[in-house]
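tokens incoming
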């Protein structure tokens, strides 16, 4: 099969071949958009909209996935712009753009979960072709998209209830780690989250990024945007970073622009609510905090005080719940420790 040939071998001959994905053939130097169907055994169905930008010249394949969570809009709008503006004539290699991985959640305006089966797609990898619709989506991404990629960027934002400071994350695991760190730094964000969480053989990978790493693909995750909104600045930040990554990986011509060395955060602390009630925060994402500092408080629905929330660490607020309702067990704050 043509797509199994090593791209560097093809580059040596200066020859680009068609790119084939699930029966769709894309000629060198062209773009094509199509839908990948997803049908569960229950007969619930959806689709994954994809654009392939296939360069005029041979090179590696990078996957860009947006819309794992349907209410995280900046990545989705950024990928629309990327698909319009990325020109195959200047591209060495191929870009696979997944516009919206979770279409049902997007059109259902559903925070975190697919409204069809109530599952969080980013907790279901590597998926199950015999499972519910969300599990089938994860399976299609894991089996049809990820194996075609030499590199992957999993693009997220703060969901509708999350006030989040933009950052990039990567796994410091295996042979992909050095390249993943290079990709993370090329994105130009001021915070990088490094995770050393490993894999347990036979257990689910759970997250899209972790599944890609398990397949040996150098992978980074973007978090850019918050509270279900979309801004021109967020779209530009995402796409400028992605284009710089493509330069650093030599898919695009030009020298990558490397910003000042980002802050690398290697330890994070999560504060979960011990009550169901109404949450009041004194803080904002990105804020510097000290151990023992009061971050907010919770009341019951009648306004009676239940508890105060204090920081256990010196560090920064990575993200927080920024809407009033909170359920017992939900995350109130995610903190990056100094």
């Amino acid at each position: 099969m043509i797509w199994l040939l090593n791209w560097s071998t093809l580059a040596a001959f200066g020859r680009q071949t068609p790119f084939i994905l699930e029966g769709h053939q894309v000629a060198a130097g062209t773009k094509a958009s199509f839908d990948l169907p997803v049908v569960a055994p229950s007969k619930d169905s959806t689709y994954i909209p994809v654009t392939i930008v296939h360069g005029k010249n041979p090179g590696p394949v990078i996957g860009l996935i947006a819309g794992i969570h349907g209410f995280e809009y900046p990545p989705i709008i950024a990928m629309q712009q990327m698909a319009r503006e990325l020109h195959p004539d200047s591209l060495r290699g191929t870009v696979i753009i997944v516009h919206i991985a979770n279409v049902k959640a997007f059109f259902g305006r559903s925070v975190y979960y697919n409204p069809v089966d109530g599952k969080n797609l980013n907790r279901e990898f590597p998926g199950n072709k015999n499972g519910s619709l969300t599990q089938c989506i994860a399976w299609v991404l894991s089996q049809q998209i990820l194996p075609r990629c030499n590199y992957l960027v999993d693009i997220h934002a703060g969901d509708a209830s999350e006030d989040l400071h933009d950052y990039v994350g990567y796994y410091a695991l295996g042979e992909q780690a050095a390249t993943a760190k290079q990709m993370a730094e090329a994105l130009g964000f001021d915070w990088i989250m490094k995770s050393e969480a490993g894999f347990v053989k036979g257990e689910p990978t759970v997250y899209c990024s972790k599944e890609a790493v398990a397949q040996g693909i150098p992978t980074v995750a973007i978090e850019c945007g918050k509270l279900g909104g979309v801004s021109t600045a967020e779209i530009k930040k995402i796409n400028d970073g992605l284009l710089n990554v493509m330069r650093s990986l030599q898919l695009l011509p030009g020298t990558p622009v490397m910003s000042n060395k980002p802050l690398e955060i290697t330890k994070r602390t999560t504060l979960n609510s011990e009550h169901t009630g109404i949450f009041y925060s004194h803080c904002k994402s990105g804020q510097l905090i000290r151990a023992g500092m009061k971050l907010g408080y919770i009341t019951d629905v009648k306004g009676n005080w239940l508890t105060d929330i204090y920081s256990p660490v010196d560090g920064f607020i990575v993200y927080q719940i920024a809407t009033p309702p909170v359920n017992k067990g939900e995350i109130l704050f995610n903190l990056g420790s100094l």
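note: Residues 2-263 form a domain with the Aminopeptidase fold (CATH 3.40.630.10).
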